[in-house]
Specification:
heterodimer, A: 118 residues, mainly beta, B: 108 residues, seven-stranded mixed β-sheet, four-stranded antiparallel β-sheet, 51% strand
Chain lengths: 118, 108
Amino acid sequence: QVQLVQSGDEVKKPGSSVKVSCKVSGGTLSSYVISWVRQAPGQGLEWMGGVMPMFGTSKYPQKFQGRVTITADKSTSAAYMELTSLRSEDTAVYFCAKKGNSGSLDYWGQGTLVTVSS
Amino acid sequence: DIQLTQSPSFLSASVGDRVTITCRASQGISSYLAWYQQKPGQAPKLLIYAASTLQSGVPSRFSGSGSGTEFTLTISSLQPEDFATYYCQQLNSYLSITFGQGTRLEIK
């Protein structure tokens, strides 16, 4: 059974960076595509990008280009999402998820709350 | 970018009702559409992929249909545990993902 376990909640200052991890077990990270999705309080789901560990390539939507970096470490079977230049609007729960059939996201991490506050 | 618009945004229904949620894409996406259920404080749960294929373990009262630009999620007989928020999601040919804005389903 595939499991994605994320790192703990974070509190950050505006202008700083955060790096959230997502450890994958029950399968081989290099054969997966891992996406990151965030959800601001009371809001919907927003895709932040994804990584293909087999090829070491990542893809990001225009909104997050230059501010987010998604990587994967096959040796630790973990994916990472780093977001820089944090502002209050980045306060959200951040989820990692594994790509399933036909572009769906079939397994999800438990979520990591990132709070940006001075 | 492909936009997904769900309707309605809010739905009030009773246990046993049949409900339908619609997701419209701004351009054709073939059948690369998925549906999720999310309850407060939880991660989204995949219900349907490829527009109409039920994910393993999901009750058969959930069904999906559509292709191209219009898709529907139907719950044939609402159960108490079905009251949640539902999202559609697509993956386009450029490997970018977008979500609909969500439909909140509440008990009448």
